[in-house]
Amino acid sequence: MTALARNVLFSEATMSFIDILVVEDDPVSRRVLERDLSKLLYTVTAVGNGAEALAALESKPFRIVVSDWMMPQMDGLALCRRLRERTDGNYTYFILLTAREGNENYREAMAAGVDDFLTKPVDRDELAIRLMVAKRIIRFSSQVRELKTLLPICMYCKKIRNDQDYWEKIETYLHQETGTDFSHGICPECSEKIAQPEMNAEIRKLAEGSHAE
Question: What is the separation of C-alpha 87 from the centre of its chain, rounded to a whole number of angstroms?
Fold first, then answer.
């Protein structure tokens, strides 16, 4: 079993104990969400607005936040923006509850960093499905984080050493381990320092050849 596979199995096991932060200013809706999430076997912390949510996030890491949009003091979008400003810790998946409709509202929410939406009143089955997706995204994020921190990589050719002590291209390794496919391009810095000089040298060589003839 590869190191990455062991990490995946561990993350699968720990995902069932994931903590969810519920942010809802309406007491009845908050209690309903707590009840439904508890029945889905999640550990729940519930608060009444965005300011209280930030305080809760400071005291404990939550991997999933389920928040109402319209709230006093700090609404769901403001909370999400503040959350995305944080650079410490793991990625937090943000589900926004809203009665609003329309592409403009969705675009605004996505720009603020929202990952998913649920229409109020919340259907428990739909909530369960969205949380399954959230856990998959969080698990993948954790795998990428492990790859970044654990992989031995050659400082010259950038190949990665796999568990069989074989050095292979990073694209090959990531595709085998995660199924990720890559499209290749040239960044501006490499274009300026490498690609463009090579092209210019080739053009000069062709020009010199034509003059010699």
Answer: 13
